[in-house]
Write a structure and sequence with these properties.
By secondary structure, the chain is an alpha/beta fold. It has one domain: 3-Layer(aba) Sandwich (Rossmann fold). It has 8 helices and 7 strands, in the order E-H-E-H-H-E-H-E-H-E-H-E-H-H-E. The protein has a 7-stranded mixed β-sheet with strand order 3-2-1-4-5-7-6, sandwiched between helices. Helix 1 packs parallel to helix 3. The N terminus is likely disordered.
Length: 240
């Protein structure tokens, strides 16, 4: 079954998805910020958001939640779930939450890697999509952990079509993408650019739904208006 992107270098624009697509999102905004144009062209896709859980003390207030205009973690997550629901609805996508805790709410985020990996394994197995898009894993610890856990999941289903998306807005940091590509290459992964000519305007309204996160960034990051970029994750025997 064809995947969300063409296997051939000749194709410039995949247009509408020919099969089902799952996008793995670390937080309640990352999929739309980084993949909203693709999701707009693939209605019916599923966005799986990892870090959506409420901490044991919902009254805790972190610096980021304060910057986003909230008085507590509980208030933040209620509002962010609603923002995400509206944004995915604009793009015609379904949402699923894994309810793990954001690193800002816990002391040792790396200790949760086994649970994170198992959650992604079971979710991808249940959804059984034709293509999966995962974060490249830039800058933010949660993004790196989700990327690494998803790559372990890829090793279980190498025959499925897998893509890495460049995490917006963190990809705008000088050298961030290149450094991560070097790291993944050193781990023996083969990444090739995936052709996609999406229009950033397709996701503008959905991005605007995340008003709290835009406030936290002190305004809409310029990077969100740039075209999305993807890398095809290949294993031996895949098409070039």
């Amino acid at each position: 079954m064809p995947d969300a992107f063409s296997c051939t270098q000749a194709a410039r624009d995949p247009g509408r998805c020919a099969g089902s697509l799952v996008v793995i999102s670390p937080h309640l905004d990352d999929a739309v910020f980084s993949c909203g144009s693709l999701l707009a062209r693939c209605p019916g896709s599923t966005v799986v958001t990892v870090f959506t859980g409420v901490p044991p003390d919902p009254g805790v207030l972190t610096d980021w939640d304060r910057a986003c205009g909230f008085a507590s973690a509980g208030e933040s997550l209620r509002a962010r779930h609603e923002e995400n629901r509206r944004a995915l609805g604009m793009l015609g996508c379904e949402g699923r939450s894994l309810d793990l805790l954001d690193c800002q709410y816990i002391d040792c985020p790396d200790a949760g890697m086994p649970r994170l990996t198992e959650a992604l394994l079971s979710t991808v197995h249940e959804l059984a999509p034709d293509a999966v898009a995962i974060p490249l894993g830039l800058f933010h610890g949660d993004h790196i952990r989700v990327s690494d856990a998803a790559l372990l999941t890829w090793e279980t289903w190498p025959g499925m079509s897998w893509f890495l998306y460049e995490d917006a807005p963190y990809r705008a940091q000088p050298g961030a993408v290149q450094q991560r590509l070097v790291q993944l290459h050193a781990r023996g992964l083969m990444l090739t650019p995936a052709s996609f000519a999406g229009d950033p305007a397709d996701k503008a309204d959905a991005i605007a739904a995340y008003a709290s996160q835009i406030q936290g960034f002190n305004g809409l990051p310029e990077d969100l208006s740039r075209p999305e970029r993807y890398w095809r994750l290949s294993s031996k025997g895949d098409c070039p």
